[in-house]
Specification:
- By secondary structure, this protein is mostly helical.
- The protein has two domains: about 90 residues, Orthogonal Bundle (Arc Repressor Mutant, subunit A), CATH 1.10.10.10; about 70 residues, no CATH class.
- It is built from ten helices and four strands, in the order ααααββαααβααβα.
- The strands form two sheets. The chain has a two-stranded antiparallel sheet with strand order 1-2. A two-stranded antiparallel ribbon has the order 3-4.
- The chain is elongated, with a radius of gyration of 20 Å.
- The N and C termini lie far apart (about 65 Å).
Length: about 190
């Protein structure tokens, strides 16, 4: 009896590059890691923060796989301590694929905002890339995580959230009007009027 081979199938000799990508890209977490790298995360800790729930060992393994596939480059930091991860030209070319997956996810999966899948920390992590910091007011803004997530995803307009009281800005009336100018929406959101 022939031994049973464990693990993923070996790349075919006829198209080794295509086979390598076929084995690397669909691995669990890989498209999300590429999304984080495309969005500007470069440090290991930044990747972990943008991928809550990924085990440290698995992130290390996936980054290694992406390096071996030629999609990610590991570079020393400018300060000389630690490393950063950057997409290679081949990795950058995955941008349209990752964006298409993101658009699909927003269209078909993002409507299901249940309390168990709302994460204020992750929302703030994503918002840090989209907020117009130079336009931020000094006054406090209050909201709930669900509503702010819906605004970020473009499911609820800022005007609607002000109208129903789920988002409020404490302070001057001009802050209410300026709110839409500093809060950024997800790149996959389709803003509502």
């Amino acid at each position: 009896m022939a031994p049973v081979r464990q693990g993923p199938p070996r790349p075919r000799r006829c198209a080794p590059r295509l086979a390598r990508v076929e084995l690397t890209f669909p691995e669990r977490w890989t498209p999300l890691i590429l999304r984080e790298l495309l969005a500007g995360s470069h440090r290991f800790s930044e990747l972990q923060r943008g991928l809550p729930g990924i085990p440290r060992a698995l992130l290390t393994q996936r980054l290694g796989s992406l390096q071996r596939a030629g999609l990610v480059e590991r570079r020393p930091t400018r300060a000389g301590r630690g490393f950063e991860y950057h997409l290679s030209p081949a990795g950058l070319s995955f941008s349209p694929v990752v964006e298409a997956l993101g658009r699909w996810g927003y269209q078909w999966a993002a409507e299901q905002l249940r309390p168990d899948n709302l994460d204020a920390g992750l929302l703030m992590w994503f918002l840090r890339r989209r907020v117009q910091v130079d336009r931020l007011p000094a006054e406090q803004v209050t909201t709930d995580v669900r509503t702010f997530t819906q605004v970020f995803l473009g499911q609820v307009s800022i005007a609607q959230s002000f109208g129903d009281g789920s988002v409020s800005v404490a302070g001057r009336s001009d802050l209410r009007r300026a709110f839409g100018g500093w809060i950024g929406l997800s790149p996959f959101a389709s803003p509502r009027a």
